[in-house]
């Protein structure tokens, strides 16, 4: 019985089997001194053991990719504390802000969205305008903080040399 190895398109070992003969043309005879607990690669027709450092680097690279995905989710969750998600809602916010700015410049400006909402809330249009402007200012401040934290965390993820560094990069206190 011999050990046979199968490799992926990048030359990395993906399967090991013990068989009396070569299972298929995809398999190669394991090198002398083969250790089933180790990982091997096939480059330029030669099979060699992958170093522990190379495996750790690959694992860290995969964890960095995962951390970046997690960061996107965390940042979007933080944004969700300030805004309602959805393209339609974003359009509503933009229109309300435009109407509020127009009213601020000219109190006779047409403000159909804000007028309807002010009436529904039973408050004067001027108060509704101020609510929208205050909310917008709060959002801009929070969005700037979230963006700064995201950029900083992305840089820390790129620079991370360990799982602990990645955990620290994601240990953000969001606004």
Annotation keywords:
175 residues; alpha+beta; three-stranded antiparallel β-sheet; two-stranded antiparallel sheet; 5 helices; rod-shaped
Can you tell me about this structure?
The strands form two sheets. Strands 2-1-3 form a three-stranded antiparallel beta sheet, with no helix packed on it. Strands 4-5 form a two-stranded antiparallel sheet. The protein folds into two domains: 2-50, no CATH class; 59-170. The model has no long low-confidence stretch (mean pLDDT 94). It is built from five helices and five strands; from the N terminus they run βββββααααα. The protein has helices spanning 52-80, 87-105, 112-121, 125-159, 163-170, and strands at residues 2-7, 13-19, 27-29, 40-43, 46-49.
What is the average of the pLDDT values? 94
Whole-number total of structural domains: 2
Question: Which percent band covers the strand fraction?
Answer: 5-15%
- Report the order of strands and helices: EEEEEHHHHH
Radius of gyration: 29 Å
- Strand arrangement, major sheet: 2-1-3
Main beta-sheet strand count, sense and barrel state: 3 strands, antiparallel
Our measurement of the CA-to-CA distance between the termini, rounded to an integer number of angstroms, reads: 62 Å
